[in-house]
Design goal:
two-stranded antiparallel ribbon, 7 helices, mainly alpha, two-stranded antiparallel sheet, single chain
């Protein structure tokens, strides 16, 4: 089947900022990060981070704090052995966590439980809460996205708008109609307005 640009649903690009080490050839620029601390007299210190990549973010964070440690009272580095939120289970434990999730919320399909576990790990219980049925998860927006999950993302993962939920956090937008995406956007706008009014 022929594919045309009209068939594209989603596109993204990644940009890596590199530190100009003076070599003159972009392909020779270091892929490592560089930290520059400006400490002017009677001025707040400014730490500028050049380069880096997502896979080394913990080492970068520790290096940044080490650069600033003479301004703050810091404890020892701790991130190397600390799991990300929801990641406090063995790498081979996905199936066991899916089974546990299905036992706790038996109304979920296997596919739905697996998607939630892969997205939130042990925080799946924060997403599902005390739900006893699909109805308790709130409005069904399609593609297994329910109101409870959106509320979790807004409250705990700083999701601000529909793009945050549908593209940046889940890619569920690939499986939803334009009307469903619009419904998510309207729901989130109303939820933000209600939260701001409280």
């Amino acid at each position: 089947q022929a594919i045309s640009p009209d068939d594209v649903l989603f596109a993204y690009a990644g940009v890596r900022s590199l530190y100009d080490d003076g070599d003159g050839k972009p392909e020779k620029a270091t892929r490592d990060y560089h930290l520059d601390l400006a400490e002017g007299f009677r001025e707040a210190p400014l730490l500028t981070i050049y380069g880096g990549k997502i896979t080394t973010y913990r080492k970068l964070a520790e290096a940044a704090l080490a650069k600033l440690e003479h301004f703050f009272q810091l404890g020892p580095a701790w991130t190397a052995h600390s799991p990300l939120p929801g990641g406090d289970f063995p790498i081979t434990g996905v199936d066991a966590l899916v089974a546990k999730t299905r036992r706790g919320w038996p109304f979920l399909s296997d596919d739905h439980a697996r998607r939630l576990v892969r997205a939130y790990g042990t925080r799946v219980d924060m997403v599902l809460g005390n739900a006893k049925s699909m109805t308790d998860l709130g409005r069904d927006f399609g593609a297994s996205l329910f109101e409870a999950e959106i509320r979790y993302l807004m409250q705990h993962e700083w999701a601000h708008d529909a793009d945050d939920v549908l593209w940046r956090r889940s890619k569920l937008g690939l499986h939803m109609s334009a009307d469903q995406k619009q419904a998510v956007a309207e729901f989130m706008t109303a939820a933000r307005s209600l939260s701001a009014a409280e």
